[in-house]
Write a structure and sequence with these properties.
This protein is an alpha/beta fold and about 230 residues long. The protein has a single domain (about 5-230), classed as TIM Barrel (Alpha-Beta Barrel). The protein has a ten-stranded mixed β-sheet with strand order 4-3-1-2-5-6-7-8-9-10, with helices on one face. The protein has seven helices and ten strands. The longest helix is centred in the C-terminal third of the chain and has 15 residues, at about 200-215.
Length: about 230
């Protein structure tokens, strides 16, 4: 038997503009992409779900919802729907929304606009990754961002780009120009974890930030802070 959710746990958000907020993370199995910098098992179905460090077999949406409720505390900001790619599992997301009453925070690779359209009214916050190493999905990513941005309150959606050594300033210029046509969205440039931050790489990040600032008002360089703190 395979399960749709690989992990459920409570921790802090370590990426993007909501760094430090307490969340209940629901990590879905599998992804439609295969990024070489991904730090999460995503190529296979999950055989069980790790809940707060314990192996469990969750067979139904109600099983998953009950575990979420057991982890809920007064400081919880939202449920992080992460992965893998959560938008593969829109039916389950609908059940989580209906049965928990906790705001949903979608972490997506932004490549499935039709799926985003299914649950756009259920999401309170969105972290929209955009994978510049997958140019064939570029237009789908912009469409996904536009769909979600149209439904979310201003400031509740941001775009995140992982800056590998294969990303150049010209790509950031093109991207931010296109994002400006959607709205003045917050942009997070996330240095790839594990890359040596030498002066050349640091200067490139600053140049990218300056370039993005020509199009967008809010541009930030934020690494994966939970890695430094030792959180999951």
């Amino acid at each position: 038997m395979s399960v749709k959710v690989r992990e459920i746990f409570s921790s802090i958000q370590g990426e993007g503009i909501y760094v430090g907020r307490r969340q209940i993370f629901v990590r879905f199995a599998k992804c439609n992409l295969d990024c070489d910098y991904c730090d999460t098992a995503h190529k296979r179905d999950a055989k069980f779900c790790m809940v707060a460090g314990k192996k469990k077999f969750l067979k139904t949406a109600d099983d998953i919802v009950n575990e979420i409720k057991n982890l809920d505390t007064k400081d919880v900001f939202s449920i992080s729907l992460t992965g893998g790619e959560p938008l593969i599992y829109t039916s389950l997301i609908k059940q989580i929304h209906k049965k928990t009453g906790i705001p949903l925070y979608l972490e997506t690779n932004s490549t499935l606009p039709e799926k985003a359209d299914e649950i756009k009214n259920l999401i309170t916050y969105a972290a929209c990754g955009l994978k510049l190493n997958y140019p064939k999905f570029y237009n789908d990513s912009l469409k996904t961002i536009e769909i979600l941005n149209h439904c979310l309150k201003s400031g509740n959606l941001f775009v995140k780009v992982v800056i590998t050594k294969n990303v150049d300033v010209g790509q950031i210029e093109e991207l931010t120009g296109d994002l400006k046509n959607i709205g003045d969205l917050p942009l997070v440039l996330q240095p790839q974890t594990g890359i040596k931050w030498d002066n050349t790489y640091k200067n490139t990040l600053l140049t990218m930030s300056e370039t993005a600032g020509n199009f967008l008002k809010e541009v930030r360089i934020i690494p994966q802070t939970h890695k430094f703190l030792g959180f999951e």
